[in-house]
């Protein structure tokens, strides 16, 4: 026995006396300084004793997997090695429960936890399975008949640090382990805490952040005690179906909660989905709830109405480049309401609480300007040179609610609203008919309370030029080496283009442009007639901006 082997035996004996488990790798001789890598393949090898010949004495479990799978099953734990499905989710078979655990997910926007895998119920989402997946916005578990006896379990930290997760739906109950949805600051809706009488949701006290804004939405059976305990401790809202004491309302990208539980109603703004550039908080709102606008980067303008008095913790945390109009009725704003926010501008009345708060917390503050007339959008039209399709575009207006598109009706000789688009849209694809011109205008409807009126005047008029009609009744007459074409005039045509097939190049070449829409014939005198006399003719017209629009080819 050399010195290294002796030391290995001594250390192994010491560990054994201390009660610590000793594995084969701990009693092996030290290496001579070479780096020994431990890879995934080595995990699959069976343990060997010093007396075994690695070529002949290695044993293998011959127990077949009860999960109808080739995955290796650990006899001690009954857990199989990982298997993956078409979605990229990885699973482990749990022998004791004859179910599967989802051990590793994928970072996709909408996650659906399957009811079954390999014909067995998926009963668990494993520890850290979706940890730190920043693209996830919704999570839903598929329903199934066996969910009642196999309520899904969300293991420790399964969805921790999913910072953009917004909605969770486990309609057949769930058991939430520690930190299951920890540090998910945008999570605001949890559906299905008590769908069946005997199958409630269980929640550990630290399954969510202590200051979570989540609202538990339950069925008619009520709220289970574990959820009540968490909700009461952390002042979390709950909504029960058909219960008038809890009312949840969605309006224009924001969500509101009417709380009648204390006997007097208070309406909270609880969430903004960050899809609108301008947001007008509902006039009934008294409280901007905690984390209501957390992390909003697309919202640039927020108008808070006069009834609002309170802005809670982290209500605008992590927001970027946002202007907020605050009424003089606001009397309380949490010190961390703008935690981690940048580019914030508060508009407030002189001497108001909001102005004093902004100055104290080093936020840019400006005096609320006097109302002005609603700006009128400037409208223009452009055309796609390839297909001739028109697009209306207009200048955006701040604090817009909707844009209205109007088209001139030749029968009534009035402009008629033909479409409404949201505040984030400043373009429209108009309809056009061959050979016709159509007039359009646009106007804007703004959020109430910003301007002297809510609607702008109609914009300037633009005329949309339709493509010319198609030529028809094409005929040809050959005389010697000359070939004469005739056709019926196309509606709206300002001219025509003729093409002849080039047999050598195997493509059509333009041979003549007629710049008069009234000319409806042409004689090819070049003598370069091809064998099949293949020609095309089509009409064209030109828009005011110089774009040429074409009708269809006609042989």
UniProtKB/TrEMBL annotation:
Coiled coil: none annotated. Residues 1-24 form the signal peptide. Residues 32-59 are annotated as: Disordered. InterPro entries: FN3_sf, Ig-like_fold, LRR_5, LRR_dom_sf, Surface_bspA-like. SUPFAM superfamilies: Fibronectin type III. Keywords: Signal. Pfam families: LRR_5 (PF13306). Transmembrane segments: none annotated. This is Leucine-rich repeat protein. It comes from Blautia wexlerae. The lineage of its organism: Bacteria, Bacillati, Bacillota, Clostridia, Lachnospirales.
